[in-house]
Amino acid sequence: MGRMTPSWKIPLVLYGYYGFGNWGDELSLLATLRALEDIGQELSLSFAYRVIVGNPSLVPPLPGEVILVERRRPDRVLSALFESLGVVVGGGSLLQDATSFRSLLYYATFLSLAQRVGKPVVFFGCGLGPFRRKLSVKLVRKLLRRVRLFLARDEATLAFLEEHRLCPASLGADPVFLLEQEKARASSQRLGVFLRREALERKEVLCEGLRELQRKGWNLEFVAFHRGEDREIAEFFADHLCAPVYVFSGVSEVLSYFSGLSGVVSMRFHPLVLATQSGVPWWAFDLDPKIVAFSAHWEGKNLLSLATLEPTLLCAALQDAAVLREKTRVLQDVFRKRALAAKGELARFLKSTLG
């Protein structure tokens, strides 16, 4: 690359499941952009970002020079790609077919095109899978062989990459671990409950178990973490249990919320990351492989089975809150250091590629 003028900024595409109302994905985008801005200052580089999104109105304010590009406008998406010098996939598990094979094909097609036109692709704090089809694995392996760097969110993803000898890779953590959060304050017995539509399949058992937790002194709060999909479910359970509903309106509200809790029960992954960051014990349902993998760091002691759940099992699990709190405080430092190490690797990659 030729000598840059002081006003020239390196154009990068940020790619992920952004702008769809899930705070986990929006926080991953924010964390990735903040990391890139820090790297830019460290390396005396300036970046201009083109972020591919679903609905721009659902994306929170972002740092740096950012243009939001709607994915439903392929002409603008392609223009952003061709004008960029690289693609950063920030957080999430784009390459999976549990949602649908069509979804996997969409993301793989864009990233393959980026590679074909000479744009380096790097994954930052991402996961892989699950894969339900042999064709999906074949497609992903072909794509990843040409990826320049993959900073894995979890051990299972790194093992897949190393087993198939696909691309340069190392273990990182979810980008959200880079965000600054308040630590847990004095015990309040507030229990944040994050449910998905699957909760309705066992609503009677869940209501009975949660009601028993109320009797034991827990103050329940139902949170719609996905603004579109979770609100109706949160309101359903809140109405039955006479509890409040929370719908976050901004990033600062999300990041400060967890420090006021004494526990989290969740069917979504990122509330567990945010709870860990604040040193708050959590319990999660085994609906997502990344949740199961994350729980393994606690020896699975905070993992609940929705299929076999009984009210007494839910109450018994929360009796271990004190033990889990101490383990969580240890692990929050582990994941934070892993995320910072991945950020350092991303900096070295960008320096060697764009500097």
Automatic annotation (TrEMBL):
Molecular function terms, GO-annotated: transferase activity
Alphabetical keyword list: Transferase
Superkingdom per UniProt: Bacteria
Native organism taxonomy: Bacteria, Pseudomonadati, Atribacterota, Atribacteria, Atribacterales
Segments passing through the bilayer: none
Signal sequence, start to end: none
InterPro entries: Polysacch_pyruvyl_Trfase, Polysacch_pyruvyl_Trfase_CsaB
Residues in Polysaccharide pyruvyl transferase domain copies: 22-288
Protein name as catalogued: Polysaccharide pyruvyl transferase CsaB
PANTHER family: COLANIC ACID BIOSYNTHESIS PROTEIN WCAK
